[in-house]
Amino acid sequence: MKAQGPATIPLVDRAYRIPLPALAAASLVLVTLALGLVFFVVPNDADQGFSQRIFYFHVSIAFTAYLCFGLGAWKALVHLWRRDPRADLESYVAVHQGLIFGSLVLVTGSIWAKISWGHWWIWSENQLVLFLVLFLFYAAYFMLRFSVDPGPQRANLSAVYALFGVVLIPVSFLAIRLAQRFIHPVVFTRHGPSFGGWMLVAYCVAQAAVIVLAYTLYRLELAGKRLDGRLRELREAFA
Amino acid sequence: MRYAADVGALARKDLLLELRARDTLPAMLLFVVSVFVVFHFALPARSSDLAASGLLWVAIVFTALLGLGRAFVPEREQRTFDGLVLAPCDRSAIWLAKALATLVFLAAAEVVALPVFALFFHGLDAATVGAVVLADLGICAVGTFAGAMAVATRARDLLLPLLFLPLAIPLVIGGVGASVVAAPGRYLAFLALYDALFGVLCWASFEYVVAE
Predict the structure, then answer these.
(1) pLDDT band for position A194 (50/70/90)?
(2) Which of A152, A159, A176 is closest, CB to CB, to B212?
(3) Minimal CA separation from B19 to chain A, in Å
(4) What is the pTM of this model?
């Protein structure tokens, strides 16, 4: 990997990264295509009917949230390894996007639970409970980050906490699976092997759409935050 | 070994401070017994024993939280934290010593709390006691780490429960599971796995929490 000083970074960024307007256009096209496929092309699910369509987005968003948390932890590791303040900002933005998509998982999951079982919340859905735990954990990340003054210590604390997150995800998942045995002996079975054809296509498109959208938002927030930082530096220089 | 001697000296310092000042342990003891009394009235008359087993774990986590909140307070108040960080020892030794001292406090509180629980609610089996021991290791390892993080922030005590409780959820699941099911082996193994994973993680990354 390249290890330039902060001053040369914006040029390098432009050289090997897709420009933001292109990303925005790609996410618009993909999200529209996914919505079209999910609502007009895919047939109704045999067991669950129309409400099953929310899964194309619910599952894609959940996977994307994991990707964001993973990216946040990876950037955190890079920060601890190389003491690069840019990686700290990237880690923060990735976790922020992860929390936004994680909240969407909770919202879409609740809607689906309400339609399928008549309750806004069900403890027997492992994925949903895991996202609740992760939501609490990463919400505390922001509490931690914003109660430390900007600087190397804040970057270190945030990075270590983000690393704890990726260990907590599998451990919590295992724990919640174990908890099913004494809290909910009945395990709901979701749609069986009848997942093919247009359903698979729609899922893949929705997944790609959400990932591209998340990456666009990540880049946008990063660009905004960097601009903010530059502006502050310039103001301090002129003051 | 040098490392073990450092850890021993640091843990001894905390235990000695507690022996002289008696700040933490009496508070933990009083707290856990009060919590049991509150739980007695929180559980309606025909609640099952299983509910009480669950509440035991709530009491343990909150009692630990009380002790953990105090763990780094003397270091901040007396300004010894900078001295500890500057001391010519591995930084992880600070975490290990603090976790050991907290473990001693928590174990001492539980030596009283578990019999009181058995007296007030129902008897405890070997699996529950084993789960408490395993969970204590995890609570002290992760809790001390979270305490060191919280004390570095402006929010201090306010932040510790927020950082610690999401991390403690798997411990509560493992502990309650071991207390209520007939074959607790799986849950005890899970608790041991948690201790090992987070123990190594805390040990390896504590350096970055205290270093500027």
Answers:
(1) low
(2) A152
(3) 32
(4) 0.88
